[in-house]
Write a structure and sequence with these properties.
240 residues; 5-stranded mixed beta sheet; 19% strand; 7 helices
């Protein structure tokens, strides 16, 4: 068990790379994957994507298809994937929220252009056709949390009062109000995205890697091994 002011011991079954929120930036994802694959000494390192693969950026469908090709990459559910799945289930109720939070960019990447003049039900039908059942089933099956040794990985972090196997969906994909303020006392290191930061960092048992890639043109990842934590960053064009 860790004590206040002392970082938890990092224990992982094998080296681990965790990629932050991609948000439709296929260019940055490809650059990051190229760097990770070049750096890995063997094929024994795990690669985890923290969710929020879609929305806001220009090529959400390209990101989904690239990651689905890579069966060795573990993709987690983010709140943006969750919003899109909710939209598919109940477009009238969920449509405005999803589009307001970047879903319009995902529709555009699917070739659906007349967004403002089409009813939510019609948009859902078009998106369903373009997603196809295989993509939708893959998205719906994404896990909420992944763990190795003393490291837990979840899109928006964990409820600091609950053990990893007792978390609720809301905390894992939308965040818990005490996550960023309350340090865990069980020795667990939590790797997360969702909460944008200027630069990827590790502090108080939390590893933060969401550097707002879709807007800043900077995608970050953490490399975690028994020897410590380091960070990788790839850059591309930013959005003014």
């Amino acid at each position: 068990m860790t004590t206040e002011g002392i970082e938890a011991e990092i224990i992982v079954e094998r080296p681990l790379y965790v990629i932050g929120d991609i948000h439709g930036r296929l260019d940055l994802l490809d650059a990051m994957l190229e760097r990770i694959y070049a750096e890995r000494a063997t094929d024994e390192a795990d690669i985890v994507v923290l969710g929020d693969m879609i929305d806001r950026g220009p090529d959400s469908f390209g990101v989904l298809d690239r990651l689905r090709e890579l069966t060795e990459v573990i993709c987690l559910m983010g709140n943006h994937e969750h919003m899109m799945l909710n939209f598919l289930q109940d477009p009238a109720r969920e449509g405005a929220r999803w589009l307001r939070n970047g879903g319009d960019a995902t529709l555009l990447s699917a070739g659906i252009s007349k967004i403002g003049t089409t009813r939510f039900e019609e948009l859902r039908d078009q998106l369903t056709m373009r997603l196809r059942a295989d993509r939708t089933e893959w998205l719906a099956s994404l896990p909420l949390i992944w763990k190795s040794g003393s490291v837990a990985v979840a899109h928006a972090g964990l409820d600091p009062r609950r053990a990893p196997d007792r978390q609720v969906e809301q905390s894992l994909i939308w965040g818990h109000r005490k996550f960023l303020q309350t340090r865990r006392k069980d020795g667990l290191v939590v790797v997360h995205g969702h909460w944008p930061c200027e630069a990827a960092h590790y502090a108080d048992g939390r590893v933060s890697v969401d550097t707002w890639a879709w807007k800043t043109g900077r995608l970050s990842a953490a490399r975690i091994s028994a020897s410590g934590i380091s960070f990788l960053e790839v850059t591309g064009h930013s959005v003014a």
